[in-house]
Amino acid sequence: MSGSVVKLEEVHKSYRLGQTSVPALRGLSLELRRGEFTALVGASGSGKSTLLNLVGGIDEPDSGRVLVEGTDVATLPDDERSRLRNQKIGFIFQSFNLVPVLDVFENVELPLLINRRIPASERRDRVRAAVEDVGLADFARHLPDQLSGGQRQRVAIARALVADPLLVLADEPTANLDSVTTHRIVDLMLELNARRGVTFFFSTHDEKLMSRVARVVRISDGTVVS
Amino acid sequence: MKDAWRLALRNLARNRRRNLATGVAIAFGFAGMMLLGGYAIRIESFLRTNAVYLQRVGHLAIYKEGGLEKASTKPAKYGLDAAEQARVAEVLAAEPEVELTARYLRGVGLAGNGCKSVPFTALGVEPEVEARLLGHPEVQRVSPELARPVRGKPLAEYPAVDGAVALSTGLARLLGKSRIHDEIAGAAPEAGLPDCAAPDATARLAADANVQLAGLTYGGSLSAIDGEIVNVFRTPLAETEDGTLVATLEGLQRLYETDQVTYMAAFLKDDGRAKALAPVLERRLREAGLAVSVYPFDDERISPYYVGSMGMIGSIVLFIGVLVTAVVSLSMLNAMTLTVLERTREIGMFRALGFTRRQMLGLFLREATALTVLALGAGALLGGAVAAAVNAANIRFKPPGISGDMQLLITPTAGLCLTLVAILLPLSLLVTLRAVRRRTRERVVTLLTEAAA
Known about the structure:
The structure holds 2 protein chains of 2 kinds. Chain A has one domain (4-224): P-loop containing nucleotide triphosphate hydrolases (Rossmann fold, 3-Layer(aba) Sandwich). By secondary structure, chain A is of the alpha/beta class. Chain A starts with a strand and ends with a strand. In chain A, 33% of the residues lie in helices and 28% in strands. In chain A, the strands form 2 sheets. Chain A has a 6-stranded mixed β-sheet with strand order 6-7-8-3-9-10. Chain A has a 4-stranded antiparallel β-sheet with strand order 2-1-4-5. Chain B is an alpha+beta fold. Chain B has 2 domains: 2-48 and 307-452, no CATH class; 60-300, no CATH class. In chain B, 53% of the residues lie in helices and 17% in strands. Chain B has helices at residues 2-12, 16-54, 67-70, 75-78, 82-93, 127-134, 137-142, 144-147, 169-174, 201-205, 249-256, 274-287, 304-342, 344-353, 357-392, 414-440, 444-452, and strands at residues 60-64, 98-112, 117-125, 151-152, 164-168, 210-216, 222-233, 244-248, 263-268, 292-296, 396-397, 406-407. In chain B, strands 2-3-8-5-7-6 form a 6-stranded mixed β-barrel. At the A-B interface, helix 2 and helix 3 of A face helix 1, helix 14, helix 15 and helix 17 of B.
């Protein structure tokens, strides 16, 4: 492991709730290094999702800087930020967020459709490899509603990895899964982290997962506590 | 690009009922406009053909300057004399867009049967030109019934009949002339004055096809000639049905003792060129030393019925068109607004994966395009089928102001369909843009979390 992939410096973020401003992050600083597998732990409302959103460039801090490979994400124009997300960041959502009218192969293919420089044959090869990596080769032509919850999350993982990102962000990826499936998904993420060297940063409130990850970042009231 | 279209088409499969309802609204709107437009096109074509060929206005009518307004009261001053006719004909012959030229003499007088006289409005025509006009493909296609005499044959087929005339059905009825030249086997009119009070007077008046035409000569004296009814016809307009007479130009000139004509008409190869060509031709005629005015057929002073009717039909089509367009737009707006609302999280997901705002807009616009094009295609099939069924049913009706009846024909053209597509498709995309744009401009996190909330 080497080099900083993500660096947050004194990041503040608050939300408006009616007339009230609710602070979500209070001067949070954090660094993620290449190839790390990091769990973000904290109670509900502690700022986990906000932190992931800022790192993923889908939200902007009120102050402070969020650097992805040295680039301040908040200063990028919208199209540049979209390109950064597409090429450097993979997202895994709690509720999978698969497109119901597309089959597994097509869902995984989505991030590659944006980059027109990738030839169709290469695109197909990469999708096939990603689908095989998550053990769904036999389900490539299945629609999401023909899959179990665990299988759907595998599709989401394949989709997050297919563009060969620097960083994969997962917001409570196992929250909608039973415990057996949860462990399988974490096993899969660990395996992909080890094999591909991709940096994983995922939030969870499942204490049982803590022992399985190399680094745990605890967050409380918008600041990192350990 | 191909993948984006594939995705758009797949997305149409979602909410099938809503998309079907929207598609049906668009398809019915398109079919309705296609039928209404097809009907308007048919009526326009019918009225135009009647005005140009059957009322003999021509695509361009050439009057001596002021003649349109004053030739009826001062025909000698405002008619075109033989020399002027020759010069006009020369200029028209040099114009490649002119297909045919005709000379017409208008006049009034009294037609008598020996017992009573009925006022008429006469038109003197050149029989050979008349035959070409009545047999013109456009006339045969659009208004064959009015071009064909009710009884008898065209004037050109009676070169040996001295004073051959054609009467409108109403005028023939008023004169009690129920038979024409061909039906009386050459019977000569009764010598002397008929006994109009005799019980068989009506039958005796109907026994021959002879009428006496009287009128004022251009010199101001009274003149009369004998006429032989060779055909009876229906006029294009009901208001002229009881008093129209068509004679040979030579015959009518003999009645009015003149070599003048009231106007000359130019028939063009392309209807659509009349308006543009009128000033050009007028300039050329004036350059040739002729003080004339050239009127296109759609000038209200020349064809008031055509212009008035088309104005009314145009207003109706416009009004209904606006309603249909509003319904189609609102259906599309409603469908796309709901679609976007339902797929807010998905928009967020796509944006998180790296799709730009423009790409998201493109995705929804492709969906709208696919839905609209499919619906328009279905509408075209539906409209075409209904038009074919109506045309095959041979439904007849009597339009106001038109003598006789006509077949209800709906003739939507490719141009009409393309125009409708050119209106409805961009409109559909505009309302989609309106429904989607605000959503795609929101922050990604808002899209993801609002939907989750």
